[in-house]
Amino acid sequence: MLMVVDRGLIALTGKLEVSGDIPPELLGKPLLLASNHIGNLDPMVLIAACRKIGVNPRFMLAGGLLDAPIMGPALKACGHLRVDRRSANAGEAMHRAVAALQKGGDPIAVYPEGKISLDPGLWPERGKTGVARMALGGGIPVIPISQWGAHEAVYWGNLHVSGWKDFLPYLTSWLRAVRKRPTFKVHFGKPVELSDLKAETMGDARRAHERIMIAITEGLAPLRLDEPDLPRFHDPTRPTTGVSPWRPA
């Protein structure tokens, strides 16, 4: 039901373009989908893109979402996993994700950056090695996913929403998108080569992380050929305090 709602929402908001695919031999097996994070709507865009190629992703979500009334139980029923990034249980969450993947079923979608990019050009920020550690620790393939366009649909908004006025940036920007109909581009890249790296070898998690982030960035560059430096769309609510080490020269 949620997938149908998501597909309708994305169709109403803009135009979806999907390129690339997931190799058939990886379907139904443990798999990580690692994507850049450019806006509040891009998880829903990613779900619609996955659905278009016949994949139903699960997400690693902040605990607050899974504890929310109505939405929380629905997300849990869909198989999404909890991760409390600021707690000592973050490592345990990674182990739970690996265990869930090794049981088979749908792939898990993750954001190596851990947050929406605040780089002025919306290139991926440095991120953390959690995804790389899951991949190496469980011998799980990683498909890099690059997104562009979802940042035009919903503003970055506010970190803390305490009243109806805090929802206005999200609502007004979404209504603008419904009128303008931006294009949401999603590209599925080739599996990242990690076979020469080991979980127990010092420095290999960092090397794996670098390869994943570089693969995401290489897939992103062709999606924004006419916007190589700054996005054309200006979000007045998004800080630009981040720095991307992966930005192409």
TrEMBL record:
MF GO annotations: acyltransferase activity
Signal peptide coordinates: none
Database matches in InterPro entries: Plipid/glycerol_acylTrfase (IPR002123)
SMART domains reported for this sequence: PlsC
UniProt-listed CDD domains: LPLAT_AGPAT-like
Keywords for this protein: Acyltransferase, Transferase
Protein name: Lysophospholipid acyltransferase family protein
Organism listed in the record: Lentzea kristufekii
UniProt superkingdom: Bacteria
Domain Phospholipid/glycerol acyltransferase, residue spans: 31-150
Region (Disordered): 227-249
Compositional bias of kind Basic and acidic residues: 227-237
